């Protein structure tokens, strides 16, 4: 009787590895992890009462030694939420611990300490003298507005904030001074302590055997294997999770931090995750990480000055109240603050909103008469408010109000909103690292910071991590020839090249004009225009007329002025050239806002030209086109964008595998609003219309906020194959689809929704013979490659074309890694490609070469890029599409709809027909 082998995966199986290219070896930031074969582990459900997540870590540090109860091997790894894992079998156990709610918790320096198990903590990690680390404040005890206490000086006042509306009457009963019964770490419980009861109950046994079968290609990646991987991940992250500030798989410390504008600071740390690989063993992926935190322990007033860029408080008073409130809400709504006006009771809360009223103007009833907040603080606490004209800060429930001067930002608080341009630049400058420096820092983390060799939790599970990084086999693929006009070509081996003397497909401009939204003289404006047009012509763009183009200089304070100027210029250009205006060149300071700061000039320009006028626009930064700074290189780069927008092509490549039959190449991405916004997500699909894969049709659609799966795929792909047939006079026989922005956990949903929708579009057109291959393009990973010898570019990164499809890739599924671009600064990030549907059945060499060659067709620069051009174009188009959303999608709208099933109405302005169908306006 024959045994039917288990199906290892629902996704396409990996074909034989590729052979094309020059064989090399590279180092990577993955470290071999092995687990003893005899290891048996158990999962425990963790219940803490009261259920206060802010106290979880502190409570667990106190409780874990009690769970072990003298058994030195019974270490328990806690995930910081609801689960724990141990190799010891423990009966259902309940312990009680007293956690100091006002404890100033110090996160130790990365790399400090000896044995970092942190199990024997006494409940307080005291800050070292002189340390730069920020304290973490506990939450307050009595409710704000309860009116407890009498009067006193500023150093010892009692009571909370002003009780706006109906004051809270709740009170907190003091905890008993002693607790009896069961195991307990409580010795003396003060009124500022919290008694936490922790119960652990065994709920499952962890089966590591299924994980071993999966790694060795003898078993599927089923729920049992995933459960085992989760257990190992929890054990691995327990010690850093208990020691540092965590965010997902990353750990951060305030010790190495950099202040940036807006009251923010960059914290550095490390990423750590488990990878299941072809190598036959697990690996630990370790990388450096950085993120932005709010500056903790600083007065909210000082942070407001910093964020709004004013020198003193009096300047805040000169900002119109509505504008001031709007800007403060934008910066601080949702932030966590702590009160400072009562020494005996620090209240900690999230900012609900910034009030329309100030301490002087906000009135409420107190002891039978109307009083202002300023009068209340003087009467109740003997405190004179220094800045009564500033707006008040309200708690989320809207029942308590606080003057800004009595609030301090709590430390260890991640900033999750969108960074502005200056902050983004600061972030890039502060975090960029050469490959050699990054590799050294990772090595130091493994040996001295994470200390895998000296970790009792890992030892109890039989886990060992090799401190030496993996060295893996790789290949450098052959670069295509970059082809320009007049049969000129250049080898793309180095990942960059000089622009040919003739564009592969030059565009022709018949009618155009220039708008200057900047302080510039008429003479300078004409000279700038002359120099730009000269470079455009030298680059290869054709101009039908030598007549002097219309130029206007306009103050852009109001969107009405901008709109009027753009329409007038288009009309004037049409008259001058006797031809419909095709493109408007707009020059303005970068990031300039109009209408009192409520709109961005760049976005308004795009909305007006593309959705009202059916005209292209090319915006330029005035700082870069000023006569004393205007360079031919900048002008040339602008020319390339203009040429592509108008349907031209900078270059082709001499070969694209799989293009011997009519082939439609697609790219797709979905962009989401920044944190705090309820704006809809925007999906973009770009589809090729020529056999060179340089010209694309663009499809935009809006869908519910933060929905990643493209909802309108059937209609989009139906229109796409129709457009292909219209241009090529034949239906596509193959469709190769590159999908950006999807995580591994969403593969099944993409297959069941997006791929199914594409197949339905084919079926409606009776395209049963059309073959579809669907590839996920992943950039959000932490794999980094480092040269093992002299195979490196000028930046110290691996050479373009470096490809890996063995050892560190998936055990059974079809994925591979390509580092396709030459480094500019910092450490290059390779791209991970994962084939999740494959009807074309391309072999490894064909698929990898196709992906690599498509990276040479970005056309906005003379360089290969880090991902296939169709996915890159879709990414640009999706981001561009957010400018066309209609409606108010601020955080207030999100709050209003939270907890309801109501959808915010989705509106997406339509790009006008000529632009939509015949140009790549987003390039």
TrEMBL record:
Residue ranges, annotated region (Disordered): 143-186
Ranges of biased composition (kind: Gly residues): 143-163
SUPFAM superfamilies per UniProt: PAZ domain (SSF101690), Ribonuclease H-like (SSF53098)
InterPro entries: ArgoL1, ArgoL2, Argonaute_N, PAZ_dom, PAZ_dom_sf, Piwi, RNaseH-like_sf, RNaseH_sf
Biased composition (Polar residues): 168-181
Highest taxon of source: Eukaryota
Protein name: Piwi domain-containing protein
């Amino acid at each position: 009787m024959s045994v039917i082998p288990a199906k290892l995966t629902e996704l396409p199986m990996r074909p034989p590895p590729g052979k094309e290219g020059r064989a090399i070896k590279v180092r990577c930031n993955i470290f071999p992890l092995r687990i003893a074969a005899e290891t048996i582990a158990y999962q425990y459900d963790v219940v803490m009462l009261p259920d206060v997540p802010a106290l979880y870590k502190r409570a667990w540090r106190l409780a874990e030694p009690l769970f072990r109860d003298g058994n030195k091997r019974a270490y328990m790894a806690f995930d910081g939420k609801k689960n724990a894992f141990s190799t010891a079998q423990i009966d259902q156990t309940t312990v009680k611990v007293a956690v100091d709610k006002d404890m100033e918790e110090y996160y130790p320096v990365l790399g400090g300490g000896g044995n970092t198990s942190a199990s024997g903590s006494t409940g307080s990690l005291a800050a070292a003298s002189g340390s730069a680390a920020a304290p973490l404040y506990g939450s307050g005890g009595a409710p704000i507005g309860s009116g407890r206490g009498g009067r006193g000086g500023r150093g010892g006042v009692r009571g909370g904030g002003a009780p706006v509306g109906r004051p809270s009457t709740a009170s907190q009963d003091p905890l008993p001074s002693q607790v009896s019964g069961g195991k307990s770490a409580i010795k003396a419980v003060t009124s500022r302590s919290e008694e936490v009861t922790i119960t652990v109950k065994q709920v499952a046994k962890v089966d590591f055997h299924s994980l071993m079968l999966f790694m060795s290609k003898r078993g599927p990646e089923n729920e049992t294997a995933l459960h085992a991987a989760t257990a190992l991940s929890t054990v691995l992250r327990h010690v850093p999770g208990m020691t540092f500030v965590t965010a997902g798989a990353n750990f951060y410390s305030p010790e190495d931090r950099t202040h940036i504008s807006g009251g923010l600071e960059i914290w550095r740390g490390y990423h750590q995750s488990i990878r299941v690989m072809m190598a036959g063993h697990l690996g630990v992926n370790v990388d450096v990480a950085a993120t932005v935190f709010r500056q903790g322990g600083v007065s909210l007033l000082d942070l407001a000055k910093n964020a709004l860029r004013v020198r003193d408080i009096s300047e805040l008073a000169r900002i119109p109240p509505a504008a001031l409130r709007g800007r403060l809400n934008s910066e601080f709504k949702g932030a966590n603050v702590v009160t400072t006006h009562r020494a005996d009771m620090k209240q900690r809360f999230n900012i609900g909103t910034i009030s329309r009223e100030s301490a002087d103007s906000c009135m409420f009833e107190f002891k039978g008469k109307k009083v202002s907040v300023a009068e209340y603080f003087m009467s109740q606490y003997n405190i004179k408010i220094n800045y009564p004209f500033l707006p008040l800060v309200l708690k989320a429930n809207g029942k308590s109000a606080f003057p800004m001067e009595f609030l301090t930002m709590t430390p260890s608080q991640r900033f999750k909103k969108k960074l502005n341009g200056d902050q983004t630049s600061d972030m890039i400058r502060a975090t960029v690292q050469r490959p050699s420096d990054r590799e050294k820092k990772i090595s130091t983390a493994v040996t001295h910071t994470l200390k895998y060799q000296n970790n009792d939790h890992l030892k109890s599970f039989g886990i060992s991590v090799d401190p030496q990084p993996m060295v893996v086999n790789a290949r450098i693929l052959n670069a295509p020839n970059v082809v320009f006009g007049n049969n000129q070509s250049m080898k793309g081996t180095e990942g960059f090249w000089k622009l040919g003397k003739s564009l592969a497909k030059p565009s022709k401009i018949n009618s155009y004009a220039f708008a200057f939204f900047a302080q510039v003289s008429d003479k300078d404006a004409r000279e700038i225009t002359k120099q730009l047009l000269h470079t455009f012509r030298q680059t290869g763009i054709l101009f039908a007329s030598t007549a002097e183009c219309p130029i206007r200089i306009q103050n852009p304070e109001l969107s009405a002025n901008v709109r009027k100027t753009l329409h007038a210029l288009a009309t004037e250009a049409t008259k001058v050239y006797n031809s419909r205006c095709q493109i408007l060149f707009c020059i303005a300071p970068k990031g300039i806002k109009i209408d009192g700061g409520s709109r961005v000039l760049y976005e308004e320009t795009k909305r007006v030209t593309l959705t009202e006028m059916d005209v292209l626009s090319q915006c330029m930064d005035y700082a870069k086109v000023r006569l004393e700074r205007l360079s031919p290189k900048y002008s040339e780069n602008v020319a390339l964008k203009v040429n592509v927008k108008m349907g031209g092509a900078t270059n082709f490549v001499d070969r694209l595998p799989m293009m011997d039959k009519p082939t439609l190449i697609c790219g797709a991405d979905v962009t989401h609003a920044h944190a705090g916004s309820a704006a809809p997500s925007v999906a973009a699909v770009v589809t090729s219309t020529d056999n060179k894969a340089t010209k694309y049709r663009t499809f935009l659609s809006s869908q519910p906020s933060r929905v990643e799966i493209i909802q309108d795929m059937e209609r989009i792909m139906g229109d796409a194959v129709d457009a292909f047939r219209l241009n090529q006079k034949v239906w596509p026989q193959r469709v190769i689809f590159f999908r950006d922005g999807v995580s591994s956990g969403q593969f099944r949903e993409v297959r069941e929704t997006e791929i199914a929708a594409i197949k339905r579009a084919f079926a409606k057109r009776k395209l049963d013979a059309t073959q579809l291959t669907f590839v996920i393009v992943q950039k959000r990973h932490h794999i980094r490659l480092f040269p093992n010898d002299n195979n490196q570019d000028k930046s110290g990164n691996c050479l373009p074309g470096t490809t890996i499809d063995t050892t560190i890739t998936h055990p059974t599924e079809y994925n591979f890694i390509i580092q396709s671009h030459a480094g500019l600064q910092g450490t290059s990030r390779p791209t991970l490609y994962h084939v999740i549907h494959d009807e074309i059945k391309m072999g490894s060499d064909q698929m990898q070469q196709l992906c690599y060659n498509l990276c040479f067709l970005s056309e906005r620069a003379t360089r290969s890029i880090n991902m296939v051009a169709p996915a890159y174009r879709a990414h640009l188009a999706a981001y561009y599409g957010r400018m066309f959303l209609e409606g108010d999608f601020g955080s207030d709208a999100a709050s209003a709809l939270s907890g309801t099933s109501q959808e915010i109405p989705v509106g997406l302005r339509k790009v006008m027909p000529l632009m939509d169908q015949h140009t790549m306006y987003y390039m």
